[in-house]
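QA checklist item 7 of 12: single-chain prediction sanity check.
[x] sequence parsed
[x] length recorded as 661
[x] structure emitted
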Amino acid sequence: MSKPKKFSLRDYQIYLIFIGILVVLLFWYSRVLGLLALLACLPLVYYSMSHVKSQNVVLERHIRDLHRDFNKLTEHAIFSMPFPLVVTDESLEILWYNAQFLKLFDSDTMMGKSLGEILPHLEEAKEDTPSEITIGDSSYLAYTSVTLGDDDSRSRGLRLHYFVSNEEYKSLLDFHQKKRGYVMITEVDNYEEVMDATPSQSKPLVQADLDHVIIQYFQKRDALVRKYQEDKYLVVIEEYQLDEIYAQRFDLLDEVRDIDNGNTMSLTLSIGVSRGGLTPLEAYGEADSCLDVALARGGDQAVVFRDDTYEYFGGKSKAVEKQNKVKARVLGIALRQLIDKSDGVFVMGHANPDMDSLGSAIGMLRAIENRGVKGFLILEDANPSIEMLLKRMKEEAPERYGQIITGSRAKELIGTGDLLILVDNHKPSFTDDPSVMEFFNNIVVVDHHRRGKEFVENLTLSYVEPYASSTSELVTEMITYMGDDTHLTPFESDALMSGIVVDTKNFTFRTGVRTFEAAATLRRAGADMSKVRKLFEDDYQTIVNRAEVVHRAQILHGMIAISRFEEEGPHAVLISAQAADSLLEIHGVKASFVLTQRDGKVHISGRSYGDISVQLILEKLGGGGHLNMAATQMVGVSMDEAEEALKAAIQDYMDEEMKKE
């Protein structure tokens, strides 16, 4: 409160100056008149001084009375405040508090205690900004007012802290958040296949049971659910009910899978969930995008977009093979048109390529050549797993071998209208040379891995089918729809066949009708299984190293084998992958993981029979793949740290499984 200004003769200064000038003029005109005027002014000056003094006395009396009344009012207001108050010095030692403040703590007195120790976060509070603190189970907004008196003032540095309850606001905010609407799109991702395999008399029963399970599941949670296609359902649900579904890990997936009413195949769902707080149109679009991700990962799972990333639930079933080849034909024709419009086409697989990556790339080069367009294969380095295939390429198909270029050379050749085709991978960071991708406006992905969080943005065309045994299978199908004749040479057929063989473990894993149809196409084109088998022959030392890895394995939870290959070298990743396959041959082992190190990265290969999802486990470590075959790379960690992280991810997975049971 500023001190009022006292009255003084300066307030009449302009009048006195004016009178003085008049007196001087009268002296100049007549000394007598000037003297008389001067004598007349003296009483006026005396009166003015007396008036000023009396006014100052009245003003001081008024100020004292106002100050006294204000102090009484302030004291009464402080003592009758309905919220907690406390006064401290600069060191936050408590000097005074009211009854409401004492009620916050289980203590008889708070005098002399340090408020900073009682409420540590209060030290960070600023005078102009309230801070949110928690006392007991209640939330408060803490306000601080600092006294800035004179240097010698006793009140200088005193702090008044008062706490306003924030519970009503938080309750209202919590209520608002719980009532936020979310949009879910649910699709039966193998509806046609199940109905085709179900006897006619059982189809209505299966459909009725399916509708009943889905509609009842959401209606008992007060959600709005509407079926808008024979295999799709739109759901609008509030957040607090959705949290219950999160806690139960979307057990609707299991309920639908358990439907048994004459169907010979299990029904599986894919669910896409939006964020809350969006407009209805935005929420529907986001839910639809999440559903696309779920389908691209093979279905039988829910995908939620939360905290700017995708979160996955389910995904423990093998992707169902699609009997209908319409999609392969449509995408094959679309890819042919894109190739025809391009001046040049570049093909690139994943880093540390395997037979499927290189084999599908060679098959794609054949499709490009069939259209009369220049094609190039971006390959940075060879590795032991593809050495034999590259050797055969150099000997039997030198013109194809001449199409292999490095990423730096590709950057020199790339034109404005050129096309990039990624095979056996959809993650930019996993490509053979990620820096190349920014030079292309048109990118196509052909892959059989379940879609992960990372994905190529602004794709021109995407063909991601997790049901397929390999990318080589997908490429073989597409080639048959891109022209009247595949023109595949025996070497190219062997390369594609090797990709199928390596990912199916010699046609024992992930094989379906379309896998054998693709293999039959390649056999007709000249594929020789005896030559393909020679591509996988190992030397003596590789077999010895693989045996040592198996020998050092440890078994977790009675069913998961973990081992390490300590030697760092060019064959390390290949040996670890082969050892992971060998560990599955141990009785009782349902999943296996082998760690190795190469180029400063820890590589982990995971394999399973399908009872345990190695994909879900390694996704926790930034990797991906399939239900029974996955991998990841960890940078900046030691082998011991990577093994501990792997064990923690396995434990999290097992805990989630226990909760579902």
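[x] summary fact logged: The longest helix spans residues 31-79.
[ ] second reviewer sign-off
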